[in-house]
Amino acid sequence: MTATSARHAVTILGAGHIGFAMALLLQQAGGYDVLVADRDPARLAEVAALGVATRLATDDASLQAVIDGRFAVLNALPFHRAVPVATLCAAGGVHYFDLTEDVASTQAIRALAANARSVLMPQCGLAPGFIGIVGNDLARRFDILHTLRMRVGALPRYPQGALRYNLTWSTEGLINEYCNPCEAIMDGARTTVPALEGLETFALDGVEYEAFNTSGGLGTLTETLAGKARQVDYQSIRYPGHNAILKLLLNDLRLRDRRDLLKDILESAIPTTDQDVIVIFATAAGQRGGRLVQESYSARIVGTALAGHRLSAIQLTTAAGICTVLDLVAQGQLPQQGFVGQEAVRLADFLANRFGVAYAGEGGVALACNSLNKKPTTTY
Fold first, then answer.
1. How crowded is the C-beta side of 306, counted as CA atoms within 13 Å?
2. Is residue 109 helix, strand or coil?
3. pLDDT tens digits for 17-71?
4. Sign of CA dihedral 178, 181, 182, 186
5. Strand partners, 73
6. 172 φ/ψ sector (left φ>0, alpha ψ -120 to 50, else beta)
7. Which residues, 6 or more positions from 246, have their beta carbon under 8 angstroms from its beta carbon?
8. H and E: helices and strands count for the chain
9. Taken in order 324, 154, 365, 352, is the CA torsion positive or negative?
10. Which of 59, 66, 77 shows the shortest CA–CA distance to 14?
């Protein structure tokens, strides 16, 4: 797709790994005047080196100043800042997008959107986000949908240690997923199931994985498909053995009740990595044309270098997800006000977008670079 014809003023809140990736993608693509705001001068300096405008935002007044009059705000702050920022955007008629996996925050934002003059669209990353678009696309292929099972993992390419895991995104968000109740559809009705339960093992392209319930990945899909499917669930993918150790930490040692301590332990003991891989696997089964059929979707996505900057797989996919829906709103391909769930996005439109092509598997990185009118770079 072509760039938007008008240059829209967009504010990115948060200059961490994901905020930096958003700024880089939007700057390279063109069509947007980008401003990045954060309370950390060091992080802002890294963004400023891209040639992107920055602003220090340390209080409510400075936050209001970088929101007022903008076309859209992309919120890459921790999940507990989602509702306050969305409230400011709704009051000012500014389109709002975020990456939250927090179910309560999404419900609060939906309530705000009832009378909003702008779009309020949370959960625009990988999971929740893209996986909901995939799930809805699969569901629509059936006359009668029986089961829809969605699995996503952000994993190290070279796992080490007993957990076989590296920190690749927000530790707060990760703990949220591991501790909070998980929405699902069972026997056709919406319900919740415990996090870390439902353990299963499977192999994909010759690699052994395990998967288990985690919170927030389904977004609003359970509401959309309630009464239309027998079973809908979401699980996070990890390498075998991860689940047992998590249960020891969270249940036996009761660290689910001391999340700040758990965050300190994880961040001091588990290294970060930008050598990661995103694994996406979704399967649906049901009736079509009087026959029982099954359809699946899978993708494996690695990181890349763009304009001299290395983006991890989680940076690339998360930033590409939120930039794609921003683009679709700017181009008039999505509703222009009120709450917008991921189910409103057609999978074909997402994958055809100049940012969304990053999801086309390992070859999608080169396509994404081409779509940004840059020379493709090799994956690592």
1. 33
2. helix
3. 999 999 999 999 999 999 999 999 999 999 999 999 999 999 989 999 999 999 9
4. positive
5. 11, 96
6. alpha
7. 178, 196
8. 13, 17
9. negative
10. 77
Amino acid identity at 250: L
128: preceding bond cis by omega (within 30 degrees) = yes
> How is residue 82 written in tokens?
């989602």
Tokens encoding 29: 């693509």
CA–CA separation, 344 and 353 (whole Å): 15
Place of tokens 């990890």: 238
For 217, the token pair is 């990945």
> Nearest 10 degrees: CA dihedral of 300, 323, 350, 89?
130
**38 Cβ contact partners less than 8 Å away, ≥ 6 residues apart:** 13, 14, 15, 16, 19, 44, 47, 54, 56, 57
Alpha-carbon gap, residue 23 to 12, rounded angstroms: 7
Q: Which residue type does 171 have?
A: T
| CA terminus-to-terminus distance, the chain | 27
Quick one: how far is CA 299 from the chain centroid? 15
- Contact status, residue 192 vs residue 127, Cβ threshold 8 Å: no
Indicate the DSSP class of residue 111.
Answer: H
pLDDT tens-digit map of 101-110: 888 899 999 9
Owner of token pair 């700040």: 260
Phi and psi of 175, rounded to 5°? Answer: -65, -40
